[in-house]
Amino acid sequence: MKDWRARTSGPSHYKPSIPGTGRQLTADELAAGSSVLKQEAARHRPPPPPRRGDPPSNRSSPSASPALPATRTFAGRSPSISQVDPPSPEIRQTPAPPYSHAAAHDYPAPSSPIAAASASGKKKFSQYTKQDKEDFFSALDHFFSTRLNLARTSTGNSAALRSPSPPPPPISQTNRPTLLGPTGTYPPIQTHSSSALSLLHSIFSTPTTPTSAWFCSQNPVPPFLTGRTDIRSTGSWSQQGDSKSLLGCVLFGDCSMAWYKITWSARDEMGGRLTESTVKKDGVYRPIPASWDGERLYNASEMYSGRMLEFADSAVRGGRAVGRGECWDIANEALKVFEGPSGGGVPKPFPSIGRTHGHLVFYADAKRKDQGLWRGGDQYVRPGDVVEWNQVKIREVGMMPGAYAILGKPEHTAVITSVDTPTALPTEGAPYPLSSLVSFTVVEQSQGVVPSEKTYDLASMSEGQVWIYRPVPLVEYVGSELDPTFPPRCQAWRVGELE
């Protein structure tokens, strides 16, 4: 059999020349007369810029030369023999957006800090109200006046005023703008890195006058803390001769602690002569504790979960309200079991303070359910943990279609008794979806409703916020008991040492 490929001829070598002369074209003449190069140049010629006032719906310009159809040259044929590509499809009738939409938008650049803040759920400064901005700048004035201690100078012929201007009064908690911190609306946003540090700054920066000497009263905490539910405090007064002293200690819901000592003269108090120069103030603090590793959190669960679950089970079986019947009481009373003689000899746990019940393990907001915050090295929610709900809309497992429950008006507390297997394990610092926890069962109560068990589908949570806490030893976590001894028996820092 003959090989058909043997009859295939090779490509012909065509050498163009000028007709009538026989002279072959040079390389430059070939390039100048090449239709292929002309067509490629026409195809890649940039369009002219749009003129002002022209309707930008059509990308092409009347002055631009129409692009020539693309050609393909085949081997073995001359360059003049070409095959034209099929025509391009018709342009859709829907017009493109106006050019001004692309040129005059107000979206930030992807790499800008504003875009990063917007992507993380933070608000732009322009989105705050006028009152919020006034409160913010008032806080800045208060901060710089206390830090820099600047004196005012006269703009006329009079001499400079030597005494510094008094700082503005501390911002009331009720007037503070409602902002979202790393863990939502709780704990409250502070002017400094912790509530304890904010307290010391306020004590030191508030001028002392006979009418503002709060330490002479029977309340061991400053008046601007009155009404806050996220603190536990203690204090003691003493007098030696003419010298009187107040020792105070405050433990906050963010787990920071502050100690302070104020000393003054009894004669100055009686004579109404208490001033900033006659009153001595001192104070130290411990910052918010760092998150624990997995082993310490697991050991804490083993230490407290057994008695927590026994307490919750007995509350359900007893059929009677715990404490006052408030939802918060069931967690508070369960933690108080370890303080008495029946506590089993384990260290005293961190008490329920405000909406805090120990080491924060997880936080999520229904508006950003896939951006939950996981804190600590233990990768599991465990029985005996305490959950806090805030205005949550969620489905209870087994509910009729369309039904839902509202947990928290505004807050609701429960003890977790069993946990479903998570669909994924978290990493501290990385976003963790709320739906990955699937569901858990809690023991809860409310006014008029005795303790009972409920199972909630976490993936169905459509409104509100949720916090989950791990009971942990108080002294091991925050460094000290609630003790007004000054200086404290643990390591503590003065203002400015850790800021």
Question: Which key features would you list for this structure?
Answer:
499 residues; alpha+beta; 4-stranded antiparallel sheet; 10 helices; 13 strands; extended; disordered N terminus
Structure description:
- With 499 residues, the protein is α+β, with helices and mostly antiparallel strands.
- 21% of the residues lie in helices and 20% in strands.
- It has 10 helices and 13 strands.
- It has helices at residues 27-32, 35-43, 99-103, 113-119, 130-148, 195-205, 266-271, 294-318, 327-336, 474-478, and strands at residues 71-72, 83-84, 231-240, 243-252, 257-265, 280-286, 359-365, 373-374, 386-396, 405-419, 439-446, 449-457, 463-470.
- The strands form 3 sheets. Strands 7, 8, 9, 10, 11, 12 and 13 form a 7-stranded antiparallel sheet that branches.
- Helix 8 (294-318) packs across helix 9 (327-336).
- The termini are far apart.
- The model is unreliable at 1-14, 56-86, 88-119 and 149-180 (pLDDT under 50).
Estimate the helix proportion, in percent. Answer: 10-25%
N-to-C span: 93 Å
- SSE series: HHEEHHHHEEEHEHHEEEEEEEH
Largest sheet: 7 strands, antiparallel
Number of strands: 13
**What coarse outline follows from CA principal-axis ratios?**
extended
Low-confidence stretches: 1-14, 56-86, 88-119, 149-180
**Rg from C-alpha positions?**
37 Å
How confident is the prediction overall: mean pLDDT?
78
Helix vs. strand class: alpha+beta
Q: How many helical elements? A: 10
How large a portion of the residues is in β-strands, by DSSP E? Answer: 15-25%
